[in-house]
Amino acid sequence: MAFSSCFRVENVLPRAISQFKHSNVNGNGSIFSPPISSLALLSSSPLVSPKFHLVKTSASHSLSIKASSSSSSTAIAEPEGIKINTVPTKPIEGQKTGTSGLRKKVKVFMQENYLANWIQALFNSLSPEDYKNGLLVLGGDGRYFNKEASQIIIKIAAGNGVGKVLVGKEGIMSTPAVSAVIRKRKANGGFIMSASHNPGGPDYDWGIKFNYNSGQPAPESITDKIYGNTLSISQIKIADIPDIDLSRLGVTKYGNFIVEVVDPVSDYLELMEHVFDFELIRSLLSRPDFRFIFDAMHAVTGAYAKPIFVDKLGASLDSIANGVPLEDFGHGHPDPNLTYAKDLVNIMYSKNGPDFGAASDGDGDRNMILGRGFFVTPSDSVAIIAANSQGAIPYFKNGPKGLARSMPTSGALDRVAEKLNLPFFEVPTGWKFFGNLMDDGKLSICGEESFGTGSDHIREKDGIWAVLAWLSIIAHRNKDKKPGEKLVSVADVVKEHWATFGRNFFSRYDYEECESEGANKMIEYLRDSISKSKQGDKHGSYVLQYADDFKYTDPVDGSVVTKQGVRFVFTDGSRIIFRLSGTGSAGATVRMYIEQFEPDASKHEMDAQTALKPLIDLAFSLSKLKDFTGREQPTVIT
């Protein structure tokens, strides 16, 4: 990296220099021994805010980072040849995790010690046996700042006594793949660098979360400890080692500390081949009368799409859209819904659109499923996968153990569980709540209305898994169709499901980046309203069955979470739900959910917004949403 002048960075976490070559043991055992030059972690003292310079060093024009004389650190140990420094720091406000990790604007994470504090607070929150001399996995969605953050995380892991870090090449590994790798390699846990479906780039979002040894997101008992430790942290332990070359597969050793850069796809692909019948899916994708498109949205699944859909399943290369992961997702918003995946929607709704379309999000854990001119709601999607799983997916050849959904997700899955006589669970929003049920053998298939679907093959929702599940269903339904015969379509499968189980009309209104004060006041207003509500209250043609603020008691460990969403449930099964999302990086996202069950097949093809209009009008009246938020229109309607 060449620069013509010196750069000063004040109070901003410098970007790590990942281009250096370091001691690397590659596949054939040869060793490369480059110069030792490394990113220095920013330090702080309670009294002085240090300043740092990017300094041009030697004729090679490589960069090192040197702290000013006001900053100091202490070498505390040199175990097995590694010097560990303790860097003074001080607490930083606002490091409480949301539904799935800590998410902020990337410039916040680039501030002095912001990321380092949180990572150290995590280690301070774990028992030593959870990481000392252990194996941790590191991956991310490829967004801006991931490579630099990887270096910081690796050095702090080494500083705290971790034995080995397994990191995806270029710092890339999808959230589902991290969970899969943790489980296959029997790792102690793993870090996921992602802000999920939120946009990326220098002016946008970044995030970090930790998953435990079964691959599941850390429970609230741990995330609460992390937050508590961010409020009292005083020092960071960091190993004085060079940056790791993330562009090369292989093993790098410093004393007894090891970093292995791995192919982010191989372990995950192996698992998918175990779960699904790839020959069955290949028979569908190779048909001349079936056309398929997958939109990776320039996000992490771009690294997986070609190896899986093209190389293994025989899809044409031009069936992959936006298949190159980019740090800013091609200036897009990697959220697979009808608004942000509009290009795919337009293709699928065109006169001669493909038979099957799908998209995934920033870190690969969400999905959207489309047929030609037909959108499958996430609530219907998980219900249909569950209803067809035993016949179409080898992993479920003995039938699923149980089914579960997040509270705001429609009741379509409930009806499948009832008909199949399966255990059923309703949990708060957040995939971590499914993990205990899976680990206890109570749950196989689950989903969230927020485009998340998955099963107990891992402990995260899984976008590509959902696409493969749908392809399996379509392939299974068409396996005996001869060329020229009309194929069973996505729309056919959904409409047959409605005819059997009834249709749950469902819609979600998202109001993104609202002023937090107004959003919180609206929720408090609603909580006051439900405290005064009683069974039998009439709201137009709707009669109230109950109103509450959802509370969940985990049937496995007895833990309790409260205030998970305000619900108005009516005697005909209709529901109105309000909650604030924990996945944004700024302001508040207000979500309003509307659901109505319709058993009459003659009404199943009504437009959802038309069918739900009376309930939508009632929801605005109950919440005074427009008054509290000042918003006339939602950002997204699903």
Automatic annotation (TrEMBL):
Biological process, per Gene Ontology: carbohydrate metabolic process; glucose metabolic process
Q: Note the CDD domains from the entry.
A: PGM1
Q: Which Pfam families does its entry note?
A: PGM1_C_vert_fung (PF24947), PGM_PMM_I (PF02878), PGM_PMM_II (PF02879), PGM_PMM_III (PF02880)
Q: Which residues form the Alpha-D-phosphohexomutase alpha/beta/alpha domain?
A: 95-234, 267-370, 379-480
| Cofactor(s) annotated in UniProt | Mg(2+)
Any GO CC annotation of this UniProt entry: chloroplast
Q: Which reaction does it catalyse?
A: alpha-D-glucose 1,6-bisphosphate + L-seryl-[protein] = O-phospho-L-seryl-[protein] + alpha-D-glucose 6-phosphate; alpha-D-glucose 1-phosphate = alpha-D-glucose 6-phosphate; O-phospho-L-seryl-[protein] + alpha-D-glucose 1-phosphate = alpha-D-glucose 1,6-bisphosphate + L-seryl-[protein]
Q: Does the keyword Phosphoprotein apply?
A: yes
What are the subcellular locations of this protein?
Plastid, Chloroplast
Q: Which InterPro entries match?
A: A-D-PHexomutase_a/b/a-I, A-D-PHexomutase_a/b/a-I/II/III, A-D-PHexomutase_a/b/a-II, A-D-PHexomutase_a/b/a-III, A-D-PHexomutase_C_sf, A-D-PHexomutase_CS, Alpha-D-phosphohexomutase_SF, PGM
EC nos: 5.4.2.2
Record-linked SUPFAM superfamilies? Phosphoglucomutase, C-terminal domain, Phosphoglucomutase, first 3 domains
Q: What class of enzyme is it?
A: isomerase
Q: Which keywords annotate this record?
A: Carbohydrate metabolism, Chloroplast, Glucose metabolism, Isomerase, Magnesium, Metal-binding, Phosphoprotein, Plastid, Transit peptide
Molecular function terms from GO: magnesium ion binding; phosphoglucomutase activity
Subunit structure as annotated in this protein's UniProt entry = Monomer.
The entry assigns this protein to a family as follows: Belongs to the phosphohexose mutase family.
| PANTHER family noted in UniProt | PHOSPHOGLUCOMUTASE, CHLOROPLASTIC, PHOSPHOHEXOMUTASE FAMILY MEMBER
Query: What is this protein's record name?
Result: phosphoglucomutase (alpha-D-glucose-1,6-bisphosphate-dependent)
Query: From what organism does this protein derive?
Result: Manihot esculenta (Cassava)
